Amino acid sequence: MENIKLIIWDLDDTLWKGTLSEGSIRITDKRIDLIKNLSKKGIMNAIASKNDFNNAKKELENIGIWKYFIFPHISWEPKGQMIKNIINNTQLRQTNVLFIDDNHLNREEVAFYNPNVNVVGPEFIQKIKSHPAFIGKNDSELTRLKQYKILEKKNKAQMNYSDNEEFLKQSKIKIMIQYDCLDNINRIHELINRTNQLNYTKNRITLEKLSVLLKDNSYINFIIKVTDKYGDYGIAGFVSLKKEENYLEHFIFSCRILNLGVENYIYKSLNYPKIEIIEEVATPLSKSKNVYWIKQEIKKKKNLHNKTELSKKQLSILIKGGCDLEQMDHYLYQRNLKILREFNSVLENNHPIHREHTSFIINSQILSKNQKNAMISNIPFLDQMNFETNIFDLNSYDILVYSVLMDYTQEMYQSKKNEIKIAYGGYTNIISEDPDEFESRFRNAKISGMDKNFHNFFKENFEYIGLISVSEFKKNLEYIVDKIGGKPIIFINGSEVHPPSSNKVETNSLNRHIEMNNCLDEFIKSHKNCYLLDVRKIVKQEDILDNIRHYKRRVYLKMAVELKFLITQIIGTKKKDRESNNLKKNIAALKLNLKAKLSTLINIIRRIFKKKKKISEEVKTL
Questions:
Q1: CA dist., res. 109 & res. 92, Å (int)
Q2: Name one Pfam family in it (predicted).
Q3: CA–CA separation, 430 vs 582, rounded Å?
């Protein structure tokens, strides 16, 4: 039996003597003290009991120990699923969980569905106090219990939505249309030129041309502001409709409102005007989509942000990953949490780019300025942003949150001239692609520079390597961790579900995700200050959208809750380290002080003895 971090208790004839539904029950003071002492060691207690929830809760409250239990599952459901749900909620390994039940059939069921859980009968309880698997750590302030209570509260309030539309409905999404576009021209320009997944027309224009458009009376121009019960998204969309032709010149929404349904709500409210959609877009427009969960309001309400504090001092986190993480970003709002973002973007030639692959992070450090400029001038899917990151600016953030999904996905190409490696695309070798089809694909997407001439250049100067190897991925992570010198990193891994059947390119992506996730698990285990936001425990098959990396809205809320929990853990660890260091310094200072005083005392005693000896000699002389 490994170190136990969670004990899941049956109630009747296990935690207490007797059956609650049949009359009185009895629990000893020793059992009550055991629950409390386990909590003070950082070992959590949960409940899996076939009972009436309210009656059991009332009894445990009367005893005075209800507050010591996390994720209580008290219902008439099968216990195998109960235990699985508790373990998923606590995000622990099965080997670190102990289940205690007097009924051997319950124990067998739990063991069948949770093969690595430690399953015992009530006779084992008396061994817990002296067993080496229950040593735990000193946590007299119940810090770990408090952290799990936060996670439990979030789960109850925000995660119990089996249907995505049910989740969206309870989110209380509201939009407000505003026509004061000139006052917000910079934000609109940013949306036009930096947004891709929900930019349906992809008509990039300069700030000067945008100013002319916003003053043109032949267009209806407006911005969309969005709020929900979790917070304010701000200006999250822009629409420009040419009145006479009833044609959408611009129809753009920020990634932060991806999967809320706002784009289809607006499209319907405009009575489905004509639009030339430039693929690819994350959410198709549909005339049959009924977005009943969104309400339109006239007057903007006050800031809806939840002002729960993580700490008294403002904490800065740097999030690096795909722009889909903007959905998680919204739910992260805390008054004392500052968020820095490095998401994928769009180049001037209309080409979307990712810059989070570990190879780009490494290249930002090891390539010379001339090497970077040479690649940017010759390769139309690169620009300066590919070689820029704040990861190594250690004064700019406290915690790094890093999604490594592009290492799971993008193909590697190596220069024949200097062996520099770059990442691009995903599960496709563009060198082997037919040049005419290559040019046609990018021309249809309004992306310039990606033509047959470039294809020939790239084929002559680069060779295809394939997906980054596990060993090189690990080597790159070692480099990053070493360079940032102990700064905490929360990695975001990949889901382990099947890709959608419509996505033929990613047919083998599940196996790739499993392979890379295993590598990341091993890396995190062997490195201090590395943590994991494990989406495997969050993303289910029904949560996948157009590919294995894009999820339904509720998933990003769950990810945000888990990220807050991890941040709280890191803050607690750092606080304990500081307290430990301060204690060591105080002890060292006390030792020095005592040593100095002891030295002074010894000198005084020596002087006394010398003086006494001198007096004695003088007396003898007399």
A1: 20
A2: Hydrolase_3
A3: 57
Please state, in angstroms and as integers, the Cα–Cα distance from residue 161 to each residue in 165, 168, 174, 579, following that order: 9, 9, 20, 41
pLDDT digits (tens, 9 = 90+) for 484-499: 988 999 999 999 999 8
Q: What value does the CA radius of gyration of the chain take, rounded to a whole number of Å?
A: 31
Q: Could you report the per-residue pLDDT of 158-168, keeping only the tens digit for each?
A: 444 445 788 88
Per-residue burial over 137-169, b if 16 or more Cβ lie within 10 Å, else e, is eebeebbbbebbeebbebeeebeebeebbebbe
pLDDT of residue 585: 67
> In the prediction, which pLDDT does 81 show?
83
**Mean pLDDT across the chain:** 88
Which of 412, 441, 415 has its CA nearest to residue 429?
412
Each residue's pLDDT tens digit, 68-80 = 999 999 988 789 8
Higher pLDDT: 336 or 194? It is 194
204 vs 208: CA distance, rounded Å:
12
The pLDDT score that the predictor gives to residue 305 is 40
Select the CATH number that applies to the domain covering 6-145 from these four: 3.40.50.720, 3.40.50.300, 3.40.50.1000, 3.30.70.360: 3.40.50.1000
Q: Element (H or E) spanning 311, and its range?
A: none
In angstroms, the Cα distances linking 606 to 311, 447, 537, 598, 619 are: 55, 90, 71, 12, 20
- Cα–Cα distance, 482 to 490 (Å, whole number): 15
pTM for this predicted structure:
0.64
Q: Which two tokens stand for residue 113?
A: 């569905």
Q: For residue 280, is the peptide bond before it cis, meaning its omega torsion is within 30 degrees of 0?
A: yes
Same topology between domain 6-145 and domain 328-574: yes
Domain boundaries, the chain: 6-145, 164-296, 328-574
- Give tens-digit pLDDT for 520-557: 999 999 999 999 999 999 999 989 988 999 999 889 99
Phi, psi at 507, each rounded to 5°: -60, -30
Contact 117, 94 (CB under 8 A): yes
Contact in structure between 39 and 45 (CB atoms under 8 Å) = yes
- Phi, psi values for residue 410, rounded to 5°: -80, 150
- 160/593 Cα distance (integer angstroms): 58
Q: Spell out the alpha helix ranges (H) of 172-314.
A: 185-194, 207-215, 262-269
For the domain spanning 328-574, the CATH number is 3.40.50
Degrees (nearest 5) of the Cα angle 41, 43, 45?
130
Question: For strand 247-253 and strand 231-242, is the pairing parallel, antiparallel, or unpaired?
Answer: antiparallel
pLDDT for 307 beyond 50 = no
The one-letter code for the residue type at 505 is: V
Give tens-digit pLDDT for 511-524. 999 999 999 999 99
Q: What is the end-to-end Cα distance of the chain in Å, rounded? A: 83
What is the token pair recorded at 289? 């989509």
Summarize the confidence of residues 577-588 as an average pLDDT: 63
The architecture of the domain spanning 164-296 is 3-Layer(aba) Sandwich (3.40)
pLDDT beyond 80 at 334:
no
